[in-house]
Design brief:
By secondary structure, this protein is an alpha+beta fold. The chain has a six-stranded mixed sheet with strand order 1-2-3-4-5-6. The protein has nine helices and six strands; from the N terminus they run βαααββααααβαβαβ. The chain is 42% helix and 18% strand. It has one domain: Gcn5-related N-acetyltransferase (GNAT) (Aminopeptidase). This is Acyl-CoA N-acyltransferase.
Length: 208
């Protein structure tokens, strides 16, 4: 079967979380830097499957999930939804390790801190666009045009939703490969945004 893109379901959670783990360390595997392999997915994948304010699309190769793009059309609604429903049980589960970190790795602690202090979008970022997204693809599927296809699916979906006129995302400044990829797609810095935020106006999107 050819590689295809489809909406994600809860049944895809484990596959998506695995991809997140294998790309969480500045685009490389985080397997060796965490004790709890589900931690990256708890933060960067599962809320987008479980919360009503979010969406997700998958890149699938013969039924194997090899990449995804996830996000929310209304970031402020997503942040509130996550604060009300998603973060509290995770804080209860992992909070003890902040008090007694002897049995966990530094990487675990960094992720646990994010659970207690999740990133909140700056007002300037929301002023640019209400929508945000993330994208992750297994290394062996990168550089083949699939990332553009996933972003295209996100743009088409968000363009159909009332409200968003563009979309933004966070990049790690150390991940120069990802930064170059987004630049080729038309993402760029925008007024008032933190350095690690870049955005795309839907009117500037040029599909191939």
């Amino acid at each position: 079967m050819p590689i295809s893109i489809r909406p994600a379901t809860m049944a895809d959670e484990d596959a998506m979380s695995r991809i997140c783990l294998l790309t969480a360390n500045v685009g490389t595997s985080a397997v060796d830097i965490v004790t709890f392999p589900k931690l990256p997915g708890h933060i960067y994948v599962e809320p987008y499957l479980c919360l009503q304010s979010a969406w997700a699309f998958l890149l699938v190769d013969d039924e194997k999930v090899v990449g995804y793009t996830i996000g929310a059309a209304d970031t402020r609604a997503f942040e509130k939804d996550a604060e009300d429903r998603w973060w509290p049980p995770l804080r209860e589960e992992y909070g003890k390790y902040l008090q007694d970190p002897a049995d966990v790795k530094p990487g675990d602690l960094e992720y646990i801190k994010k659970i207690f202090s999740p990133r909140i979008a700056a007002d300037a970022t929301i002023a640019f666009a209400s929508a945000h997204l993330h994208i992750n693809i297994l290394p062996e599927y990168q550089g083949k045009g699939y990332g553009r296809q996933l972003i295209g699916s996100a743009v088409r979906y968000l363009s159909s939703v009332e409200g968003p006129k563009g979309v933004w995302l966070h990049i790690n400044p150390k991940n120069t490969k990802a930064a170059a990829f987004y630049k080729r797609l038309g993402f760029k810095s925008f007024e008032g945004a933190p350095e690690e935020m870049i955005g795309l106006r839907f009117e500037d999107w040029v599909p191939k």
